[in-house]
From TrEMBL:
A GO term for molecular function: xanthine transmembrane transporter activity
Principal location: membrane
Similarity comment: family membership: Belongs to the nucleobase:cation symporter-2 (NCS2) (TC 2.A.40) family.
Membrane-crossing residue ranges in chain numbering: 36-56, 62-81, 88-106, 118-137, 144-164, 184-201, 208-228, 328-347, 353-378, 390-409, 421-441
Keyword Nucleus assigned: no
Species this protein is from: Candidatus Pullilachnospira stercoravium
Name of the featured protein: Purine permease
Compartment(s) where it occurs, according to its Swiss-Prot or TrEMBL record: Membrane
The keyword Transport is assigned to this record: yes
InterPro entries with a match to the protein in the record: NCS2, Xan_ur_permease
Topology within the bilayer: Multi-pass membrane protein
Length: 449
């Protein structure tokens, strides 16, 4: 009788279309690079923005970007390969997702960096990670508070609140003595034109890497205009281990509240990415243990990231899009992408090179990203019928969130902590209002009775 057992070492390679197993390196490498190309700009840009707001030195800016790459890699590996599996519980989603520094936290992080420091952001991140862990364990009961009308309103507000950041960057950055010069605007619109052109007319790699290619083209164009300063690269080392606790950790109550609310919302939002991954590439819904393990690990990895000096991470939707389009779900492919990010995180010269990208070029490239965030929010909102009740939830939440943040003087008679939580970023008020209005306002059927 023929045995089905294969001797050790004779097992055939796994397919890149299988979740488990190890595919051939020659197949995995180009697919992994595709993921890196799609997310690396988005991964480091929040750190560049926050470093600018915080006014830290060039050396510290390199360390913050280095931590972004390193922490994104570690967070991705922890999600892909659960370190704990006990019956119906696992620590990590075990799904083909990529984690990266999230734009969702940028508005609130900017508000904190303006009045405090990066250590205060990292302290709030630890509290947010604890909130995410609690959400993960209670996901079945809490999920009802965050229907698409609520999460969509929050995501839409995040997109809107990022527009001024992109426009200020397009003008050269508010700290730049040449802020608003024609050279900055010319380089910004050139970069934007390349990104839009590739998005709408290119195919394959060029379409996938439109933002990266746009930044490279904009960088060269800006260099011709004399806007690129390479002096910082020479002083950066070739190899450096990330520096834990370099920025310190400070717990400031109002900052912790503002970031914790976002962690609760983004924990629920992660369900969308996990679901899109499984439905789009495996034709099934995610299992409860995958959702719970993914959200709990999201919280734990962010606590770890804070000690390593990295800003908050989250699932990256662009990489979800790659997985659902190509149907390449092998975890080793995405794990290899994480290893590439990890290696880049040990090379300060690479991080220093990223800091030389002119702000006008970053603004021209990222305004399209911020626009897509706002449109994602609108798509989520329209998953539910836009009746009078739901339009009231969206309209009032966004109006109050954006209105108060743009008229901070209206909170002048309130304590400083109230201004920090409610006045500096529109996302917190919009989130709280959307949740409350969704709970309080009667449904259409209730109104008809």
């Amino acid at each position: 009788m023929k045995s089905n057992h294969q001797p050790s070492g004779s097992k055939s390679r796994a397919s890149v279309f299988e979740l488990g197993g190890v595919p051939a390196f020659s197949q995995a490498l180009p697919l992994a690079l595709q993921h890196v190309v799609a997310m690396i700009v988005g991964c480091v840009t929040p750190s560049i923005i926050i470093a600018g707001v915080a006014g830290i030195s060039d050396a510290d800016r390199v360390i913050l970007i280095q931590a972004a790459l390193f922490c994104s890699a570690i967070s991705t590996l922890l999600q892909l390969f659960p370190i704990v599996r006990i019956k119906n519980f696992q620590l990590g989603s075990s799904l083909p997702v990529i984690m990266g520094i999230s734009f969702a936290y940028v508005p609130s992080m900017q508000a904190i960096a303006e009045v405090a420091d990066i250590g205060t952001i990292l302290g709030a991140q630890i509290v947010g990670g604890i909130v995410a862990i609690l959400v993960g364990f209670g996901i079945r009961k809490i999920r009802i508070l965050f229907p698409p009308i609520v999460t969509g309103t929050v995501v839409f507000t995040i997109g809107l609140s990022l527009y001024p950041t992109a426009v200020n960057y397009m003008a050269g950055g508010t700290s730049n003595p040449d802020y608003g010069s024609w050279k900055n605007w010319l380089a910004a619109f050139f970069t934007l034109a390349v990104v839009i052109g590739l998005n709408h007319f290119a195919r394959g790699f060029l379409k996938l890497a439109s933002i990266l290619v746009g930044i490279i083209a904009g960088y060269i164009f800006a260099a011709c205009l004399g806007l690129v300063d390479l002096s910082g690269i020479q002083s950066a080392g070739l190899f450096q281990v990330p520096q834990p606790l370099h920025f310190g950790i400070t717990f400031e109550p109002s900052s912790c509240v503002a970031i914790a609310i976002l962690f609760a919302v983004n924990s629920i939002q992660a369900i969308g990415d996990f679901s899109a991954t499984t439905v789009g590439s495996m034709n099934r819904d995610p299992e409860d243990k995958e959702l719970q393990g993914g959200i709990v690990m999201y919280g734990l990895s962010n606590i770890l990231d804070a000690f390593l000096g990295g800003l908050p991470t989250a699932t990256y939707s662009q990489n979800v899009g790659i997985v659902t389009t190509t149907k390449v779900i092998n975890r080793c492919v995405l794990g290899l992408a994480a290893v590439i990010l990890l290696i880049a995180g040990f090379v300060p010269k690479f991080s220093a090179l990223l800091t030389t990208i002119p702000q006008c070029v970053l603004g021209g490239a990222t305004i399209s990203v911020f626009a897509s965030i706002a449109m994602t929010g609108i798509k989520l909102i329209f998953r539910q019928e836009m009746n009078y009740r739901n339009t009231s939830i969206v309209g009032l939440s966004v109006a109050l969130g954006m209105g108060v943040s743009q008229a901070q003087a209206s909170l002048a008679q309130f304590p400083e902590w109230a201004t920090m939580i409610f006045g500096r970023s529109p996302v917190v008020i919009a989130t709280i209002m959307a949740i409350l209005l969704n709970l309080i306002l009667p449904g259409e059927k209730a109104q008809e009775k």
